[in-house]
Amino acid sequence: MKFERYGIGIAKGLTVTIKHLFRHPTVSxxxxxxxxxxxxxxGNELIWNQEKCTGCGTCAKTCPQGAIEIITSTDMAENxxxxxxxxxxxxxxxQCGLCIESCxxxxxxxxxxxxxAKYRRGELxxxxxxxxxxxxxxxxxxxxxxxxxxxPKQTLLIEKVTEKR
Amino acid sequence: xxxxxxNIYHLARLQAVSPDWPGGFWWHWLFFTVxxxxxxxxxxxxxxxxxxxxxxxxxSRLGPNxxxxxxxxxxxxxxxxxxxxxxxxxxxxxxxxxxxxxVIAFAPALMLFAVIPFENGALLADLNIGILYVIAISxxxxxxxxxxxxxxxxxxxxxxxxxxxxxxxxxxxPMVLAIVGVVLIAGSLSxxxxxxxxxVPFILLQPLGFLLxxxxxxxxxxxxxxxxxEADSELVAGFHTxxxxxxFAMFYLVEYxxxxxxxxxxxxLFLGGWKGPILPPWLWFVVKIILVFFAxxxxxxxxxxxxxxxxxxxxxxxxxxxxLLNMFITALQVLAGWPTELVWVMIIVNIxxxxxxxxxxxxxxxxxxxxxxxx
Amino acid sequence: xxxxxxxxVLNMGPVHPSTHGVFRMRVTLDGEVVVDIEPVFGxxxxxxxxxxxxxxxxGVIPLTDRLDYISSMSNNLAYCxxxxxxxxxxxxxxxxYIRVIMSELQRVAALLIAxxxxxxxxxxxxxxxxxxxxxxERIVDLFEMASGQRLTYNYxxxxxxxxxxxxxxxxxxxxxxxxxxxFMDEYDQLLxxxxxxxxxxxxxGILSKEQAINCSISGPVLRASGVKWDIRQADPYSIYxxxxxxxxxxxxxxxxxxxxxxxxxxxxxxxxxxxxMEQLPSGPVRxxxxxxxxxxxxxxxxxxxxxxxxxGFYLVSDNSIAPYRCHIRPPSLINLTALRDMVRGWKIADLxxxxxxxxxxxxxxxx
Lengths: 165, 375, 367
Description:
The complex is a heterotrimer.
Chain A: H1 8-21, E1 46-48, H2 58-62, E2 68-75, E3 80-89, H3 98-102, E4 108-110, E5 125-126, H4 145-148
Antiparallel strand pairs in A: 1-4, 2-3, 3-5
Chain B: H1 2-13, H2 25-58, H3 74-83, H4 95-111, H5 130-138, H6 141-151, H7 155-186, H8 191-197, H9 202-205, H10 207-220, H11 245-270, H12 281-302, H13 308-335, H14 343-365
Helix pairs in contact in B: 1-8, 2-11, 2-12, 3-11, 4-6, 4-11, 6-7, 7-8, 7-10, 7-13, 10-11, 10-13, 11-12, 13-14
Chain C: E1 8-12, E2 24-30, E3 33-40, H1 48-52, H2 61-65, H3 72-87, H4 93-122, H5 127-147, E4 156-157, E5 160-161, H6 169-192, H7 195-201, H8 209-214, H9 220-224, H10 231-234, H11 255-279, E6 298-306, E7 309-317, E8 325-329, H12 331-335, H13 339-343, H14 348-358, H15 362-366
Helix pairs in contact in C: 3-4, 4-5, 4-11, 4-14, 5-6, 6-11, 11-14
């Protein structure tokens, strides 16, 4: 510790910290104060549009983790695939979004939820019914700009700055 | 100076509270023991809260605010949590030493308060060698810390303990020499008499002494920037790495009790102790303790840690000669006759002397050695 | 007449507050002096290079996020450049600019963490770390807006970026760019001239120019030693030849220089972002690339200037949908090779800050 500068640097540092003491803290208190997440947020669940899905299985092929399982049978009368089993293991899902981008029929979306903690590993597997869109399972705007516009605007820390500088 | 000494002697006898208040030796003993233990524990909780909240705000976050109103009960919740935790003793530990260490470290932190006056004369024992007692007792906790480092049989603990012993052995000397200046002006070793003698707070008459004592005191109780005994980024937690549960709580308590003790001593020696207008004396005392402690929190938030050889160099090459010079200059001033009517002149002279000494010494004499060692 | 004690071995890590993850060092100490160190790694090994051989060319991109997890965008960019080189894909203009903006923002964010962690290792109790995390948060907000995630962005694709920037992105970025220089000044004020930091970091852990070149060090660590080598100018990739920026260098190559180097690089990155914002064209953001890329048989190496140094991807194709071999040149691992020479003879406290000043991410070392 050479005092060639006679403690000027230390004094400068101390003024910065004492200034922060009188500034508004940057943090927000999570469960009570909720910030809006990104409109493109990649939630912890997948949402599946049963009507649009043709059962082609591109999503399952694209998934790098192999988290999507799809079993189809052929309906000869209507000349199309019937999706018998469609499961996404959100425990394996890494939320990369490749399945959503690859879906040629725009039948798969991310949900806008993030509080999806479960008590058992088995509960993490989403069955067909748990993948449908419901009011509490909102669709995220990831890869679908038209859906993003309906969601609330993201809260940005850069706009939340209350501290004076 | 004989007359001044006589004056202080008279003043000390005129204290508001009689020496054995509230009556009888044992009542006095019991009352103050209870008061000291209660005071230390509540103050520790208070300063933990202040440190965590203050540091939080300085770091642009909130700090604990969930437990109780404004998070005031956070120290209580922490204490309950840590007391309920499992007490793990390493298999290779020296069990007795490991168990005894927190107790030995804790006792002196409490004993320090025996001679610190809360009000004029309101103290457990008005020793006429009070300041000597403070110095003697405060270094006992090193034994506890070294026992913790040794008994844990952990290399981090041992390194932390070795650093602590080295630091305290070095920093005791500038600390004592910094106090000598105060003692010379006050003409007494009793803390109560020192407070009584402070018509002007000694921080103004002894600015250099205050700086030296503050730095040495911070080093003595492992506060930043001298906290390298429990440097969390180097030695995990230093000497108490292997402690858990109740024994860890004891060390945590020791850390803050010592911080309160050093703050109290600084408040007593340099800031006029319980003296102050309007408010009751004990409240002034608490306010001053908190002020000093806040300065410690502030430096802890801002400053990086120094290295062990720099710590030693700072003690022996900066603090030690400066405190010698300070003692010498103060002695000269007292010998030449302390002009009580020209006290403001003395304050200005002393601050100028401090500035010149610090600048000259750091410019021309203070050099760091050490650095890289060839292997 | 030096008193010698018996050397002993101290295990630092894998669980240690300042080994930046699960890095382990077997340190031989003589008292406080470091006699020898032996880095032990592999605690975070996930076999990313091997996993990449079983995934499609697009499917590898999420894996690259997890290499150096505090600069995912740069990893994405390096991989995508390699894959595009292999498949001969031309990237649209707008995508190139978005890539530059993203990777420079990522550099700012990663260097902020590097500086904050370094100062934290010096013992400034979390204050610089939290201040810099606050600024990183503003950048991460922007990334979240564009890509939908806050850590593993997975934003770039072979042949462009996954989706166009949302319309509220540019105003937010402009606001950030206006505020950032003031934040940077405040950090400089906080600790840049602090006497204790100067005493701790100046002259500590000197890495000489020759040694840095011999160890093939790259990135800020190399430039702090005085070598003017930056892949953005030495071998311009993407569209970096269109921007006007300086390569700051330092002289001595000690810890303090590495800290200063990072701060100055942050300012240069901001300069590049400002230019890219002005020039940003409109148009498509993704080239017409088939869903499963099948590059011709061959091999390609692409390297970029990641926040930590030269990050390279070497891909070998056998004309299938998955790379035959994917080799990664991680800057952290190679910068670490100089650690032993830098720390020998210094004290434990110096070991920590020298280690912190190299700025490693264990995810990249172990892969």
